[in-house]
Amino acid sequence: MMTPDQPNNSDSPNAEGGEEAQDASRDGFVSIWIAPEITEAEIDDYLAEVEDFDPEGENEEAFSNFAEEFGLLWYDHDYMEAAFENSVVPVEELLKGASFSASFLVDAVAAAKTAGLATGQAAILLYDVAYQTEHGAAKGERFQFLGAFPYLSDEDDE
Q1: CA quadruple 80, 144, 9, 104: dihedral, nearest 10
Q2: For the chain, which residues make up each domain, given as ranges?
Q3: Around Cβ 155, how many Cβ atoms within 10 Å?
Q4: What is the pTM of this model?
C-alpha cells in the first residue's frame, strides 16, 4: 500500500474549502474504493461524467460526483473498472474479477480487513492512480477508500 512519504502531483486548488484537488496519476498503482451497500443505479449516477469536460481548462462542474467527493481533478475512464454485485459479498470475491487482481488481491483484502470492510457490494478501481487521503477524503457518502496498491500488468510479466 502507498505510504505517506511518496510523492504526489497535486497542484490545483479545489474550489471548495481551499483544499487541493489531486492529480494522483502514478504508473503501476491501482487505487480502490469500496461501497458496503449501494444500488447499480446509484453507481451509474455517481460515476456519470460531465460532457465536454476539459481536464486542461476551467470547468463549471467536477468531472463526476465521484471525482468531486474524493477531490480528484480528473481520471481516465479507460483505466477505471467498477464491480457491482446484487448482494453483499466478501471483498475478496468483489475484487477477484478485476484486471491484474492476482498482483494486488492479497494486499487489498488485508487492507479491507484492517479497515473493518470484510464485505462490500461495489468497488471502483482506478489504474495508474495512487490516490492519497492527505489531499482528499478517506470516506465519502457511499464509498470508502481502501488504498493504493502496486499492480503488475500482463505486459510486466513478460
Answers
A1: -60
A2: 12-153
A3: 6
A4: 0.81
